[in-house]
């Protein structure tokens, strides 16, 4: 059974049809990458999957449980976490404080907001483990606004991991990063355990082909093609609509 199943999804904005009959299945443990030209509807699809946006028609199931039409927190409850194209961090707080807040947000019922958070040993231990696991322990005291853009994007991924998701949606995780930061982020994604299923929007073809088990191409709001990376790489039509010839050759080099 697929972990995530999107069936015949439609979404429009004031008459503009942005997603048309989109069906997509992501198997448990898979690294599934969503590509497509600007405006193809990729982020809108993420917003519809996570419940950030209501859908017009269709369904979204996680582990066989229907979540379409339910509030956005349902996605978190069924084990889904996501990052956004733009950072959503508390810039004046430290890396560690941001992580504490992310952990608290995942399980608010475990915390009493009148008790100082540093009295929750379990919270501090969980944060320490994550910071060490993802090589941010040394930078835990840094104020987020003082981090490079790439470091901030990496922190976003770490915050999404704080909820210990079964399925993680990453929206252009390497956008705006330097080449070195892109390599670091790619390695981080590759090192994630297969217990975390990934659905990733990505434009950088080097990154796409180094992480994907399966690729879905979205074009004008429709699934144009879905298949193994070799299949997508070799498809002339995909080159025409998306790669414009040059980019894919660069990725093969
Ligand atoms: N809230 C909204 N209201 C109206 N139109 C929207 C809204 N969100 C997205 N759109 C439109 O929907 C279309 C798809 O946008 P979307 O951001 O999903 O594309 P994308 O494939 O993620 O593009 P990119 O790669 O540039 O991020 C675009 O034409 C966009 O202008």
Describe the 3D structure:
The chain has one domain (4-252): P-loop containing nucleotide triphosphate hydrolases (Rossmann fold). Helix content is 36%, strand content 23%. The chain is built from ten helices and ten strands. It has helices at residues 42-50, 73-77, 95-106, 121-133, 149-161, 179-190, 205-211, 229-233, 236-243, 246-252, and strands spanning 4-13, 16-26, 31-35, 57-62, 65-66, 80-82, 167-171, 197-201, 214-219, 222-227. β9 (214-219) and β10 (222-227) form a beta hairpin. α3 (95-106) packs across α4 (121-133) and α3 (95-106) packs parallel to α5. The model is unreliable at 245-253 (pLDDT under 50). This is Urea ABC transporter ATP-binding protein. Keywords: ATP-binding, Nucleotide-binding, Transport. GO terms for molecular function: ATP binding; ATP hydrolysis activity. It comes from Paenibacillus naphthalenovorans.
């Amino acid at each position: 059974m697929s972990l995530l199943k999107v069936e015949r999804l439609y979404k429009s904005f004031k008459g503009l049809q942005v997603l048309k009959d989109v069906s997509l299945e992501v198997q448990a443990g898979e690294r599934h990458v969503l590509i497509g030209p600007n405006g193809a509807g990729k982020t809108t699809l993420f917003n519809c999957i996570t419940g950030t946006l209501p859908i017009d028609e269709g369904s979204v199931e996680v582990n066989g449980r229907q979540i379409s039409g339910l509030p956005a927190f349902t996605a978190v409850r069924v084990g889904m976490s996501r990052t956004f194209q733009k950072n959503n961090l508390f810039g004046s707080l430290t890396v560690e404080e941001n992580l504490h807040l992310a952990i608290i947000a995942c399980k608010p019922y475990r915390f009493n907001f009148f008790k100082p958070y540093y009295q929750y040993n379990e919270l501090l231990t969980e944060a320490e483990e994550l910071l060490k696991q993802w090589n941010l322990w040394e930078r835990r005291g840094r104020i987020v606004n003082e981090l490079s853009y790439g470091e901030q994007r990496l922190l976003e991924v770490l915050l999404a991991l704080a909820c210990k998701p079964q399925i993680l949606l990453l929206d252009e995780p390497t956008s705006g990063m330097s080449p070195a930061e892109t390599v670091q982020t790619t390695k981080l994604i590759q090192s994630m355990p297969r217990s975390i299923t990934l659905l990733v929007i990505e434009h950088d073809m080097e990154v796409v082909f180094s992480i994907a088990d399966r690729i879905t191409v979205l074009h004008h709001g429709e699934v144009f093609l879905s298949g193994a990376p070799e299949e997508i790489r070799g498809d002339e039509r995909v080159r025409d609509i998306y790669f414009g010839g040059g980019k894919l050759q660069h990725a093969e080099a």
